[in-house]
Specification:
With about 350 residues, this protein is α/β, with parallel strands linked by helices. It is built from eleven helices and twelve strands.
Length: about 350
Amino acid sequence: MKAKKLAIIALVLIFAVTSVFAAGTQEQDKKTEVTGRTEMASADAKVDDYVPESDSYRFSYLYKLIHPWYDAIKVGLDAAVADYAEKGVTVEYEYLAPVNPDGVQQLNMIEAAAGKGFDVIAVDITNPDVAVPVLNEIMDNGTPVLTFAGGDASPDSGSNRIAFIGNVDNKGDGAALAEALAKKIGYEGQVAALTGTIGAPSHEQRIEGFEEVMAKYPKIEVVARQRDNDELEKAITMTENIIQRYPKLKGVWANNMTNPIGAAVAVDSAGKAGDIIIVGMDHDLRALEYLRDGVIYTLQIQNNFDMGYELIRTSIKVADGHRPDSGLFPELHNVGSTTIYQEDAEEYIDLLY
């Protein structure tokens, strides 16, 4: 389990930090205190040898939606803020998101941030088609832009963002879950997919991985693909309807932190736990409990702590005028993910909660 523990990279700190959240308008709690690090902390999650050129910075971090998944990123942010404070560098940041993953609402937040004089703006992009033109304009006006978490927009898509901090292999995660599902059902039978939010880059990339794997196995029939929009009630209702329509359903593939929980609620209520195999993303306590109880078969967990910590480190360097070609940070900082099964669940519950 040591390698798997390291892959989580100190998410155990999630309840060592006081977080203040309010719908749509979260601010960094300046009284936040981070207790000491544990052996879970990443060797890379620390202030490096780079000497900041200023003694204070202000950043805006805008993410996709208010959701517990982002709390663990904030733990990494606050740990980095505390570490830089010990070095005499003050970092202030705002951490904002719409209540729901709405590209237009996020765009309004981006435009508001652009007028507040932040040293760096970083965005977990909900809809690249909506956000990228405005982010490019912000860059043209002199404010550096980063992307993070699951919402990158690469230069190939026309984005001028400087760097991305997050999981760079969402497609691989989607494929890994699809392979686990295919193997468990013996490479034949009916499966359904809960596919998250339209346009969300991480969700779309995981779908690509799912589709490529399913195409390899002609005896597997994908009978439904449903957009749950990261909403629990939708995921529950959609799964209930799929179960009723396809009584021979053998599996559900889920691609965000909410929809495997919704699938598990529906499958468990239908008395089909263990008969319908559920695979999905991330570390929500309810998902881990369903994994422990055998309702969910496997979860792919991302390393959110490092997303937050590295976002602060990179933001400081970018605010000082550095770019990836300086060698101080990569254009793509991959934090990775790990796969866990029922036998791992209790340990992760103890570690994280």
